[in-house]
From TrEMBL, chain A:
Pathway: Glycolipid biosynthesis; glycosylphosphatidylinositol-anchor biosynthesis. It is found in: Endoplasmic reticulum membrane. It is a multi-pass membrane protein. Residues 1-20 are annotated as: Disordered. Belongs to the PIGU family. GO terms for cellular component: GPI-anchor transamidase complex. Its main location: endoplasmic reticulum. Pfam families: PIG-U (PF06728). The chain crosses the membrane at residues 25-42, 106-128, 160-180, 186-208, 215-234, 276-298, 310-332, 338-360, 367-386, 406-426, 438-457. GO terms for biological process: attachment of GPI anchor to protein; GPI anchor biosynthetic process. Keywords: Endoplasmic reticulum, GPI-anchor biosynthesis, Membrane, Transmembrane, Transmembrane helix. This is Phosphatidylinositol glycan anchor biosynthesis class U protein.
UniProtKB/TrEMBL annotation, chain B:
Keywords: Membrane, Transmembrane, Transmembrane helix. PANTHER family: GPI TRANSAMIDASE COMPONENT PIG-T (PTHR12959:SF11), GPI TRANSAMIDASE COMPONENT PIG-T-RELATED (PTHR12959). Pfam families: Gpi16. It comes from the Eukaryota. InterPro entries: PIG-T. This is GPI transamidase component PIG-T.
Length: 480, 801
């Protein structure tokens, strides 16, 4: 135990030494916040809040304001089909939408909340990244591979991820455009942070809130469980030829037994059902709490059933066919009504189908697994926005070291830039000028989906390759 | 399907001007009811249902005409059982029928009434307003059942009350009997025995039909209903916005229907659907589109003051034409063959600037205590026409000065040759503004002449071709402006030889302006593009002088109350929180002016958005504007109409002024009390106006794309699924191991083979032999495979072409 502690201390100090602490990060983070505030005060109305890329029917602040107005005029906020968000968000953000400060732009308070959410998210990402890196280094050390993969970057991957999240134009646009996705992202990141640091209540709270806000983070329960219940602190299990069909931690157990000779570590390695149970208890506690809160806030004019119908039902049945950067809107605007239910099932199950194969293959990397899940759901969800992309692009920075030799990264970068420039142009041509038609915009959405697919597939593939490389190195070292 | 019907209708629109073919062909189906009772045809088919003539007449006739010969013939035949049955049937039924006929004769003191009236009014902008008013009243008689002399049965069915249902059943029995006996008559005269079956079937059919109609009676239960078909837009600024005609008869373009039902609240929607469908059939219009819940709303207080189970729906784009007018005319007892309706020459009506036919039905039949009027049906037709003045050549010289002179024959191309025989009263009114006279007085300085003498004596600025029978003056109560004089003409004095042809000739140029509503409301769209926009309702003070001097009698603080009722279809997603109010071009807090607001927001594909608002504006307001932002919805490809790029209509908003009433205070007179038109004018109705219909263009998807979109999207999904799964199941490590194992094995095998070779003492050629042997085998297989593929390809090519 003391040895482990000292190891951790050592690696921490090493990190501090190597990367010059958080000075650079703090500076850049402050600049990012100032940049956001400057954009909020930007005199010309950018009208970002009504862009289809930024605000979806689920995250639009205008719809939230309408829901709040309906609630204030003693009707159910879900009366009519305007608001589809959570009642808790409504009671927190709703009063802020109507509060005006003289001489300030409208919705200034909401903007400040979103800026704060972004800042907290980036700090949490940074902390998660540190935790991840410590674990990574520890595992490498245990395999005696540390010298092999010393990174030469000025900042650690956690710092980079946090800065990528803060400075990503998608994040900035989502924050300034007053969509509620910064808040949703905050809770998703909180889940990951809680899981990474082993704080069961925090992880459970984050997961419950994120699921409550946007449903799709529900699938994160698997990586959270994996991470919390033991796999996290243990290095990637190399797929050595000897251990292909054996539990991946076997190698390390043998390794650690040989090296440290501590019985406790071997006990920790086992996937602990007790911890899963612990987490589930916390999850159910928080769920009950959130449900009670919701029922209190909708009690006056509606019911929980109406809430679920209007939020989850709206997400699952793709009722709103207004264009967005996803793939489903045009499909369901054009598909024959007879097949609508069938395709709804097929498309939603596409997300679910991928859960198990990914979980089996990446169970030793829960954080990366979570990243892949988030990327997939933000690609295939009913009403995607750039805020969702911002989240997984930020998380991608966490795996900078592992994904160093990822293919097509330049191509992907160019693709993202190109699509994000073309998509507003096509939208303008179609909606505002009337010179283009829907296919133009749909084509950019398709291209965007393809780029996201390539990103997911390539990152998974290079992560697996990285593990293979580690295995190779460790086996060759073992054989020496 | 239904959309195509609509389109078809629109396509026929250009032809319908002047086409009277349909009218004539339908006339053949409906022989004149007014003819001699002996020659009356008993079976009139009206919308597939029997339409009986008056009950007591009918019974008397069938007893006299049919039964006697039947008895005679029956006695000649040998069909005893049948005869007995018939006799039994007759004995069973006839006393009741006879009783009923007697009672009907007794009650006949309570007559059904029909009045026809026409109001003519020159408008300030050189046009003429003609307002036809036909009023039918059916007394609340239980005895009468479903039979009416004058009242259209199709309409009376809409209000039939439950208590009359059994009577209705019985009252049709004479009809059944008549039918049966006629059939029997035929049967015996032709002496074909198998006709008995026909009779039995007919009997069954009649009874079944009777029961079906028994069910149908319960379908409507309308308490109050108004249906209007309008083409063109009422010009509130020029034609007036305060008088009873503009408040009651100016209607939004297209079809407007509202109805109050006498049923429990949860059944109103079902009854509304029945009503729309039956009216759709009755008036040959696509009113059945109002059946869907996205098309109608239930205003609480802003549309009508009286609360009730009200449903309101409009079809702004309905094309109104003769095909709607003909069924409307069919409801009149004289149709357009006699009386005032004979003026309704289709080409001249549809040539006009505004044309609105309206049907207003009230019944207090459901309240048994009220014995006043059972069902009252008010049919009005309001047209604004441009008289083609004979001096059209002088338009350029003195166009603005002279009002055009006109006569009935020059406007309608027809003359009135006597009244409708069935009408209680038949009067033509000419309404003139009083301000004309005052002006003339100023001009002419004629001295204090009384209006009556002045009007038709020809001493004033105009000349009427006929002498009025009555002159009615509006009482000046509140203000001098807007009050008017009515000249009445009895049409019954005229006949074929001396037709009624009222003419008006102006001698001097005159100017006047119609009385305006306190605020003139207009509505427009703001914003561009197909993503979002805003609706603005703008109120402008009609004339500042008027509002400053008069109409101040509201209350302390002087507030101008304005009710706004607006229905918005669901694909216009209105943000009600974005409501802004600008008073005198300044943004003001909403709470200061919006006294009461009720919103039922739209639900996608379920219900339209409805907004009711009570504004209280200061009296000296010059202009006020309301703006509401909205997002445009995106529809499924099937929800677009065939002409999707034309845009969608937002129905007119209804603006009413609860504290202002459009009422004419006429000097009460016996003749006025008799006249339904004038008594209607004297009713206190609040001033009401409709705004413009808005046309909102919506974005369309590519209608030719469904297959492409399905295939492309599915391809992307397949790409995702396939490539990700491929990455996951690819195992480089395993491959390596396999390779290694293979190498090991090979090495072992080599070793073994060497060992074997050494043991046998032979050089190692064995591994080569099988390979050399297997090579041609694989080659054969390969060739076979290639041939198979080629054959398949050829076959495919052959069959696919």
């Amino acid at each position: 135990m003391p040895t482990a502690n000292t190891e951790e201390e050592n690696s921490k100090s090493e990190l501090q030494k190597n990367h010059g602490g958080g000075g650079g990060f703090t500076r850049w983070a402050v600049v990012a916040v100032i940049f956001r505030l400057a954009l909020i005060y930007f005199p010309g109305n950018l009208n970002l809040s009504s862009r289809p890329e930024v605000s979806t029917p689920l995250t639009s602040i205008r719809r939230l304001a309408e829901g709040y107005w309906l609630k204030q005029s003693s009707m159910s906020p879900y009366a009519g089909s305007m608001y589809h968000g959570s009642p808790l968000l409504l009671s927190v953000l709703g009063p802020l939408t109507v509060k005006r400060i003289e001489g300030q732009p409208s919705h200034i308070l909401c903007s400040l909340v979103f800026v704060l959410a972004d800042l907290i998210s980036s700090i949490l990402i940074r902390a998660t990244g540190r935790k991840l890196q410590i674990a990574y280094r520890k595992s490498l050390k245990s395999l005696n591979l540390l010298n092999k993969s010393t990174d030469s970057g000025a900042l650690s991957s956690g710092d980079i991820a946090a800065l990528v999240y803060l400075w990503n134009p998608f994040t900035i646009v989502a924050c300034v455009g007053l969509s509620t996705s910064p808040v949703e992202n905050l809770f998703t990141i909180l889940t990951l942070y809680g899981a990474a640091t082993g704080l069961a209540p925090l992880a459970a709270f984050g997961w419950v809130m994120a699921t409550h806000l946007s449903l799709y983070p529900a699938i994160l329960i698997i990586p959270v469980n994996l991470s919390y219940s033991g796999s996290w602190f243990y290095p990637p299990a190399p797929l050595s030829p000897e251990y292909t069909y054996a539990p991946p931690s076997k190698l390390f157990r043998s390794k650690e037994h040989g090296k440290v000779g501590d019985g406790k570590s071997s006990q920790e390695i086992i996937f602990s059902w007790r911890r899963v149970f612990h987490l589930l208890v916390w999850t159910s506690l928080w769920s009950v709490y959130v449900l009670v809160l919701c029922s209190i806030s909708v009690k006056q004019h509606g019911s929980l059933q109406e809430m679920f119908q209007r939020t989850y039902g709206f997400i699952l049945t793709v009722e709103d066919l207004s264009p967005n950067i996803g793939v489903l809107w045009y499909f369901f605007a054009e598909v024959f009504d007879f097949f609508r239910d069938f395709f709804l099932i097929v498309f939603h199950s596409n997300i679910l189908f991928m859960i198990l194969p990914l979980a089996i293959r990446l169970k030793h990397r829960p954080c990366f697994l979570a990243f892949v899940y988030i990327a997939i759901s933000s690609m295939l969800k009913s009403y995607p926005s750039v805020g969702d992309s911002a989240l997984y692009l930020g998380l991608l920075g966490l795996f900078l070291d592992e994904l160093a030799d990822m293919q097509f990264s330049f191509f992907l970068f160019c693709g993202y830039v190109g699509v994000s420039l073309l998509s507003p142009v096509m939208h303008n041509l179609w909606i505002w000028r009337g010179t283009g038609n829907a296919n133009f915009y749909y084509a950019t959405a398709m291209a965007y989906a393809c780029f996201q697919i390539v990103l997911v597939v390539e990152s998974v593939s290079s992560m697996l390759n990285h593990d293979r490389k580690l295995t190779k190195l460790s086996t060759s070292k073992l054989q020496k | 399907m239904t959309i195509q019907i609509r389109k078809g209708k629109r396509a026929t629109e250009p032809q319908c001007l002047g086409s009277q073919r349909s009218l004539n062909s339908e006339d053949l189906l409906f022989p004149n009811q007014t003819g001699d009772s002996k020659a009356a045809v008993y079976f009139q088919l009206s919308n597939g249902r029997f339409r009986p003539p008056p009950a007591h007449r009918l019974i008397a006739h069938h007893i006299v005409d049919t039964i006697a010969p039947i008895f005679f013939r029956v006695s000649r035949t040998m069909w005893l059982p049948l005869r007995l049955t018939l006799l039994l049937l007759f004995l069973l039924l006839s006393p009741r029928a006879l009783l009923r006929s007697g009672s009907a004769a007794v009650v006949s003191g309570e007559e059904e009434e029909f009045h026809e009236e026409l109001l003519l009014k020159p408008l300030p902008d050189r046009k003429v307003l003609a307002h036809f008013h036909f009023h039918s009243i059916a007394p609340p008689s239980k005895s009468n059942g479903r039979h009416h002399h004058l009242f259209p049965k199709a309409i009376s069915q809409l209000v039939l009350f439950p208590s009359s249902v059994p009577f209705a059943m019985w009252s049709d029995l004479d009809l059944i009997l008549n039918f049966l006996f006629r059939l029997l008559n035929n049967c015996f005269s032709s002496s074909r025995k198998y006709d008995v079956f026909l009779i039995v079937f007919a009997l069954i059919g009649v009874i079944v039909g009777e029961f079906l109609s028994f069910g149908q009676v319960q379908k409507f239960r309308v308490k109050e209903m108004e249906l209007s078909f309008t083409q063109g837009r009422w010009n509130y600024e020029r034609w007036g916005g305060f008088d009873p005609i503009s408040s009651n008869n100016a209607k939004p373009p297209g079809v407007e229907l509202w109805a109050v039902f006498d049923v429990p609240e949860d059944q109103v929607d079902a009854y509304w659907k029945n009503l729309t469908n039956s009216l759709s059939g009755l008036f040959c219009a696509s009113i059945n589109f109002l059946e869907s819940s996205t098309m109608y709303s239930a205003p609480k207080w802003s549309f009508r003051i009286t609360p009730g189970r009200l449903r309101y729906g409009t079809l702004p784009r309905e094309a109104v034409c003769t095909e709607n007018l003909t069924p409307w005319l069919k409801l009149l007892p004289c149709r357009d063959k006699a009386g005032l309706a004979a003026l309704l020459d289709r080409p001249s009506i549809y040539k006009g600037f505004y044309h609105s036919q309206r049907l207003y039905l009230t019944s207090n039949a459901s309240v048994p205590a009220e014995t006043v009027s059972g069902i009252s049906l008010e049919q009005t037709l309001t047209v604004v026409l441009q008289p083609n003045s004979p001096s059209s050549s002088s338009i350029h010289s003195g166009e603005s000065n002279f009002q055009p002179s006109w006569s009935l024959s020059s406007i309608f191309g027809r003359k009135i040759s006597g009244k409708c025989v069935l009408a209680q009263s038949s009067i033509v009114y000419l309404q003139l503004e009083k301000s004309i006279f005052s002006e003339q007085k100023d001009n002419m300085d004629n001295g204090p002449n009384s209006l009556a003498s002045e009007g038709f004596a020809g001493g004033s600025g105009f000349e009427m071709s006929l002498d009025p029978d009555i002159v009615i003056e509006e009482e000046n109560q509140s203000q001098h402006k807007g009050s008017s004089v009515l000249y009445g003409f009895w049409v019954e004095k005229y006949n074929e030889s001396q037709p009624f042809d009222l003419g008006l000739k102006w001698k001097y140029p005159v100017f006047w302006s119609s009385r305006q509503a306190p605020l003139h409301a207009s509505r427009f769209l703001m914003g561009s593009g197909n993503e979002r926009g805003a609706i603005a309702i703008l109120f402008k003070s009609a004339n500042s002088a008027d509002s400053s001097s008069g109409s101040r009698h509201v209350s302390d603080g002087c507030e101008l109350q304005v009710d706004v009722f607006q229905v918005v279809p669901w694909y216009i997603k209105v943000y009600y929180h974005s409501l802004q109010i600008f008073v005198d071009d300044e943004a003001k807090p909403i709470g200061d002016f919006v006294h009461k607001i009720q919103v039922s927001p739209s639900k996608d594909k379920t219900s339209p958005g409805m907004m009711e608002m009570l504004l209280k504006l200061p009296c000296d307001v010059r202009s006020a504007a309301l703006t509401l932002e909205f997002d445009k919805g995106f529809l499924h490809i099937d929800e677009y109409p065939p002409d999707a790029n034309q845009g969608y209509d937002i129905p007119s908003a209804v603006i009413s002024f609860p504290s202002f009433h459009s009422v004419m205070h006429l000097l009460s007179n016996d003749s006025i009390r008799k006249s339904p038109l004038l008594s209607r004018f004297q009713e206190k109705n609040r001033v009401q106006s409709y705004t413009e219909v808005l046309l909102v263009p919506l974005t369309t998807p590519d209608f030719s794309m469904p297959y492409n979109v399905i295939t492309i999207t599915c391809t992307v999904f397949a790409l995702f699924f396939g490539s990700l799964l491929n990455v996951l199941r690819r195992r480089v490590g395993e491959e390596e191991r396999y390779l290694k194992a293979g190498k090991k094995k090979g090495w072992l095998r080599v070793l073994l083979s060497r060992l074997l070779a050494k043991l046998r003492g032979k050089p190692m050629e064995e591994p080569d032999q099988p390979s050399s042997e297997s090579a041609p085998l694989i080659g054969k297989k390969l060739v076979l495979k290639v041939i198979l593929v080629a054959v398949l390809a050829v076959a495919w090519q052959f069959y696919s072409t």
